Amino acid sequence: MRDSWKLTRSLTLLIGALATVGCTAPGTQVAAIPSTFSTGSPDRSVVAAGKPPIVRAQDATLTADDAAMRQTSPGNTNQYRTGMPASGAPVTQPIQQVQYDAPPLPQAPVAGQPTATYPQAGVVSGAPYNPNAYDQAVNNGYVQQQQLPPPASVAPLGRPMGGAPIFNPPLGPDQIYGPNPVYDPGRQPFLPGRTADILVNAQEAQTGRFQFGVGVNSDAGVTGSIVVDERNFDYAAVPTSWDDVWSGRAFRGAGQGFRLEALPGTQVQRYMATFTEPYLFRTNISLNLSGYYFDRIYRDWNENRVGGRVGLGYRLTPDLSVGASLRMENVDISDPRSNASADLNAAVGSHDLFSGQLSITHDTRDQPFAPTEGHLIEFSFEQAFGSYSFPRAEVDMRRYFLLRERADGSGRHTLGLSGRAGFSGSDTPIFENYFAGGYSTLRGFDFRGIGPVQGDIYTGGPFRVLGSVEYLFPITADDMLKGVIFTDVGTVQESTKIVWDEFDIAPGFGLRVSVPALGQAPIALDFAFPINKADSDRTQVFSFFIGYAR
């Protein structure tokens, strides 16, 4: 009897030891709960006296790689799990983790955006959506921060085995976009009640510029150019010491614009000072002030202008703006070449001229100089008074089409269409008339070489129409040499009655040469051949110009 009791006691201890070994998982798989495990054991594997161990939601498929991944990405451990098999039972099939799939996208993609979906985290269609699979870039401009789970010292709330995870990162794409999101990679997500800190590393750009150069063109002869331009001007930052001047703090810092320009030349002289306040009184209204001196030697007379202009602008939309301006100037006409023109004789002398102008502009061009896409539509009305009183209305329309380009955006082939028209009243003096001819208006003709003539004096007219079709294409791979094919049409008349037979037409071709040492403006070399003209028109096959504007 006594031996059987000893044998029974030995078998009981042996079974208990085997049961303890079978239920003990590796240290990385045992849930650490201080209340049920001894805190004195480094691996927390010693059972406290009188308290049985509690093993919770163990995962038989956990590997060393999984543990390393979760150490690298803390907080991304909420998985759908099942229980361990019975103690000592063989594991024939590893417990599979639930495969996840992306949420459904029933809505149509945003207009103009490519169809896109979230990355697939699993292969089983229809499985629950796991936000942990998308803990990197949620959308352009926003990176989801990794969320840490509760500390190991706090026992999480229990949940049914295989139920929904308790801990979920709160900023998954499903929370951001709603239950039926439309994933738009180019759109910043809207997070109600949330803010994001944006760290921008920037270096201050050079806002001041001093430029010196020499130019020549077929319309104005040889000219020099001296320009001082500051795009971060501050008229209130008056220097208090020489240190403010030498350090560059004087008259800088308010984002205003200030420009001094001197263009002395053989036929043209122009001196101008311009001040620009882009946000007048912290509003969206811009202010422009300018004063100028202009002297020009024309073929038939000399003209001198001294005056100024005050302008206000307001941008209604990014593409639509309105403006208003006042012009005040004194015009002096001298040295007439002939007495054959009554209009010129009447204009000789000094005249005070004032005018007010209203304008509206819609501009969608990709860039103001050498555009390749978009359009420009501008309407303006001006009323002059003083020595002369007359109205003036003008319209300028331009459209650009990008036909083709290289993969990197260079080598652009551009088709440009333009049309301009202007009309002024009957009291318009000769020095305010419209003229045409030359590179900027009508290639193939001499500067101011078409239109009404009195004797041998070209007097211009109160009505003008200009049009042009131009195809610009690259010749070299670096875009430093481009070719152009064009046709210019236009007329200047004394009445608004359009006579199509009186339109001058000149097709032609040319080159655009960009020389980095001479600045960004290209050299334009054009050849035009008039095919329809008046007998009094003066032709000029070759014209050249340095710059963008026509």
Q: What structural keywords apply?
A:
single chain; 550 residues; mainly beta; Porin; 16-stranded antiparallel sheet; two-stranded antiparallel ribbon; 5 helices
Overview of this structure, please?
- It is found in: Membrane.
- Keywords: Cell outer membrane, Membrane, Signal, Transmembrane.
- One of its GO terms (cellular component) is outer membrane.
- Residues 1-31 form the signal peptide.
- This protein is mainly β and 550 residues long.
- Among the domains are: 50-188, no CATH class; 334-546, Beta Barrel (Porin), CATH 2.40.160.50.
- Helix content is 9%, strand content 36%.
- It contains 5 helices and 22 strands.
- The chain has helices spanning 2-23, 64-72, 173-177, 242-247, 342-347, and strands at 137-139, 142-143, 208-217, 221-233, 256-263, 268-277, 285-297, 302-315, 320-334, 349-363, 374-386, 390-404, 413-424, 444-445, 453-454, 457-458, 463-474, 481-493, 504-513, 523-528, 539-540, 542-546.
- The protein has a 16-stranded antiparallel β-sheet with strand order 3-4-5-6-7-8-9-10-11-12-13-17-18-19-20-22, with no helix packed on it.
- A hairpin with a 2-residue loop joins strand 15 and strand 16 (457-458).
- The longest helix is centred in the first third of the chain and has 22 residues, at 2-23.
- The chain is globular, with a radius of gyration of 40 Å.
